[in-house]
């Protein structure tokens, strides 16, 4: 039984007021709010077993190492990776993607091709453009349709023996479209191309199974799914992680160092140079436990109810334009009211305690496609309510009257 009022009690921030009004937080696609149990785990680590990991013989170091490695196994289980060393802990999706893009510098040659989609966050565009500049590889783009979906036929036409790598998001942050990634992966594999899935927006709503998907890489950021900022992960198939050179040099990632030659540590340490965000990784594991205790099926079903409720209410507002109308969507609504700048709407409703995102959402190619400077984006989480949506709709109507 999904009890949203009980769940809300786990999130202290939901009690606060903003500009004298109860906070309505609809900027979940940017970052989620945090349950107390996750925050407690950070205080617990620093209060009771703070020590550096992997190097110490002393008790605190062993306790910290155990907690850190237990978190890796929780993450492995959550994503159903075959091996724990296929989970590389990073500072987030951006770091993860850059790690792979940097590694591919030594694997690509002039005129090899890589394929991106029109629906990407800048984090899944810019590192690959930099890679193409370094290697002379060619970047091809899967076009999008008016509904905010990928044109899969056009993708089929882009694939060829020259394609070495495909990188697409599981869910678009700007529109909420859930992309048909299994199909995208299978089609790439017909040409022996590797696939990286940016799961930053999918993982708060969907529990991916990387073995079933059969992708080469899958990445996410803890802060979008009730965890802390500055932590994330990348799953990589063992064979591919072995092929990629290390991203950064330093402590932890070596086997032996001499001035003549350094040899690298085994996976996963090869990609984890330096002291990591130990507290953050442990808390990431706690956040996953918390979300799994609610259940991803329940979360998705409830959020879908919120999505439909809000979509229907928004469509009752005159001059409303919704972007991204795919049937396969997470609880994200991107919209504009004709003749009004999204920033003005965001500023006015902030005065009423409502947090939404306005702008291009780090996805300028999508905005260019629709020929708009940006949108208002309301993104819901499992701790939001229909009552909050009613407050939001009333505030929008007020803003519209003021700005028309
Ligand atoms: N990809 C997508 C689809 C995103 O939504 C985000 C975060 N907005 C990122 C990548 C980057 O994530 P981070 O900033 O946590 O590295």
From TrEMBL:
Keywords of the record: Pyridoxal phosphate, Transferase
Record InterPro entries: Aminotrans_V_dom, Cys_dSase_SufS, Cysteine_dSase, PyrdxlP-dep_Trfase, PyrdxlP-dep_Trfase_major, PyrdxlP-dep_Trfase_small
Needed cofactors: pyridoxal 5'-phosphate
Superkingdom of the organism of origin: Bacteria
Catalytic activity from the UniProt record: (sulfur carrier)-H + L-cysteine = (sulfur carrier)-SH + L-alanine
CDD domains: SufS_like
Enzyme Commission number(s) from the entry: 2.8.1.7
Domain Aminotransferase class V: 24-392
MF-aspect GO terms: cysteine desulfurase activity
Record family assignment: Belongs to the class-V pyridoxal-phosphate-dependent aminotransferase family. Csd subfamily.
Function of the molecule: Catalyzes the removal of elemental sulfur and selenium atoms from L-cysteine, L-cystine, L-selenocysteine, and L-selenocystine to produce L-alanine.
Protein name: Probable cysteine desulfurase
Organism: Lutimonas vermicola
């Amino acid at each position: 039984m999904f009890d949203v009022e009980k769940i809300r009690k786990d999130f202290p921030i939901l009690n606060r007021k903003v500009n004298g009004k109860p906070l309505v937080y609809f900027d979940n696609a940017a970052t989620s709010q945090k349950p107390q149990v996750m925050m407690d785990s950070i205080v617990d680590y620093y209060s009771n077993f703070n020590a550096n990991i992997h190097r110490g013989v002393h008790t605190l170091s062993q306790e910290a190492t155990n907690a850190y490695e237990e978190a890796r196994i929780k993450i492995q289980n959550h994503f159903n990776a075959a091996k724990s060393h296929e989970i590389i802990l990073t500072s987030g999706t951006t770091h993860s993607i850059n790690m792979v893009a940097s590694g591919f510098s030594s694997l690509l040659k002039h005129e090899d091709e890589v394929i991106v989609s029109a629906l990407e966050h800048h984090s899944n565009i810019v590192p690959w453009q930099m890679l193409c500049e370094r290697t002379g590889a060619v970047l091809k783009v899967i076009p999008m349709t008016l509904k905010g979906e990928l044109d899969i036929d056009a993708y089929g036409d882009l694939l060829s023996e020259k394609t070495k790598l495909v990188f697409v998001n599981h869910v678009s942050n700007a529109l909420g479209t859930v992309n048909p990634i299994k199909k995208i992966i299978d089609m790439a594999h017909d040409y022996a191309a590797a696939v990286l899935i940016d799961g930053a927006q999918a993982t708060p709503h969907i529990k991916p199974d990387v073995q079933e998907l059969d992708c080469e890489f899958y990445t996410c950021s803890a802060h979008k799914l009730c965890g802390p900022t500055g932590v994330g992960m990348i799953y990589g198939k063992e064979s591919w992680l072995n092929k990629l050179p290390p991203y950064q040099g330093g402590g932890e990632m070596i086997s032996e160092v001499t001035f003549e030659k350094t040899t690298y540590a085994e996976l996963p340490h090869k990609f984890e140079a330096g002291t990591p965000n130990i507290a953050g990784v442990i808390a990431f594991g706690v956040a996953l436990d918390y979300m799994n205790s609610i259940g991803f099926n329940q979360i998705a079903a409830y959020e879908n109810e919120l999505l439909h409720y809000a979509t229907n209410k928004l469509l009752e507002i005159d001059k409303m334009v919704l972007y991204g109308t795919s049937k396969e969507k997470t609880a994200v609504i991107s919209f504009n009211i004709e003749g009004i700048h999204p920033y003005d709407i965001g500023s006015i409703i902030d005065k009423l305690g409502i947090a939404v995102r306005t702008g291009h959402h780090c996805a300028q190619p999508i905005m260019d496609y629709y020929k708009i400077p940006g949108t208002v984006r309301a993104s819901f989480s499992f701790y939001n309510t229909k009552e909050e949506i009613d407050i939001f709709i009333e505030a929008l109507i007020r803003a519209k009257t003021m700005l028309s």
